[in-house]
Design brief:
By secondary structure, this protein is an alpha/beta fold. It has 3 domains: 30-237, HUPs (Rossmann fold), CATH 3.40.50; 241-350, Orthogonal Bundle (Tyrosyl-Transfer RNA Synthetase); 360-435, RNA-binding S4 domain (Structural Genomics Hypothetical 15.5 Kd Protein In mrcA-pckA Intergenic Region, Chain A, Roll). The protein is built from 19 helices and 11 strands. The chain has helices at 21-27, 37-45, 64-78, 108-123, 140-143, 148-155, 161-164, 168-174, 182-185, 187-202, 214-228, 265-273, 280-287, 292-304, 310-324, 326-339, 350-358, 371-377, 384-392; strands spanning 33-34, 50-55, 82-87, 135-138, 204-210, 233-237, 362-365, 396-398, 401-402, 419-424, 428-434. The protein has a 6-stranded mixed β-sheet with strand order 1-6-5-2-3-4, with helices on both faces. The chain is elongated, with a radius of gyration of 25 Å.
Amino acid sequence: MSAPASESLSNQRNDDSFPSIWEELNWRGLVHVSTNPEELSALLAGPPITYYCGFDPTAPSLHLGNLVQLLLMRRLQLAGHRPLGLVGGSTGLIGDPKPTAERTLNEASVVAEWVGYLQAQVAKFLSFDGDNAAKLVNNLDWTAPMSAIDFLRDIGKHYRVGTMIKKDAVSTRLNSDEGISYTEFSYQILQGLDFRQLYLEYGCLLQTGGSDQWGNLTSGVDLVKRAEGASVHAIGTPLVTNSDGRKFGKSEGNAIWLDPALTSPYAMYQFWLNTDDADVVDRLKVFTFLSRDEIERIGEAHSAEPFKREGQKIVARIVTTLVHGEAATEAAIAAADALFGQGDLAALDAATLESALRELPNTTTMPTSSIAQLLVDTGLSPSLGAARRSIAEGGVYLNNARVEDEASVLDAGALIGGMAVLRRGKKTLAGVFVE
């Protein structure tokens, strides 16, 4: 089973085996909740509409959860509709309420810098050519000039506190010891203001977002209805979880970022390579533009021979290429092969090798350290005695060369740019960095 071609903007396609984009989105599992489905189906099957998705700069990069939205935006654009990529220069100064505690407010200069980073990332996934060219917008442009009085009179009067406190995140916080500040309580009004502004300026009729944002999405739908008397729509995508129900791609302090400086292409590739067998088909549906026939074929082959992990390899190659490009993906694959003795470590560029080793257990040491001690320092062996036995049994490798002597020390000539791959057995790896 060979991997399909990489998915650049120019060769991305929706699947024409579906009678409508709405049916394809549902088949791919991208619609968890929405406003009136019948109206949405008709709307998306009709003349081009303008739609948007917002991304808050509460970090210097987007992550895999955001990638779901970016690819949904691209699918709608391929169906002929016009995307607005909103990066929230104003909402990013506040942050969407978390269920657990108040966010730390970042300095305005930091948020402004992050706006630029996120805009560049959003732009990679959309086309800015043609009749339905994408456009980037920043909600600070219409929020900053608004006075507090105007905000309260023109926007706030359309909101009812009873409705606002029923939103999931707000309700959770109100019932916690932490409580919620007026600042974060007001976030949903600001997001509603965005939809109204984009409706007035661009005729925007649809907002997309994660289902955990549903309260904020409907805030905009309700505001446009109350203030303008117009009907607009929202789609909430499901939170992508692993087969065991854990939230996908992000745990506490461990997001998979789209910025290669925060999550290397090697780490990105390995993340997808470790996809559970039960999740492979769902990942193909959400994160690739492969057709239904292709995905079903891959799924059948993967089910027949899951030990080959070909489904994971296809997902890993396609998504890493989508995010980081073909050259970085090929380098990540070459690094993975070389680490396990199936390629030439010396042929890897230093940056790729270092990023791969940083993902492994690793240690920084002096040039004269013993191999046995390094096995202990990196956690590959529990003790010096066990380390020496592993060496004596012929199961220890330094840069894919077997270590023959229990008393061996690092050989400067064996290092690659001051780095080395330490391996015990076939699959247990660690990185060594020499000072």
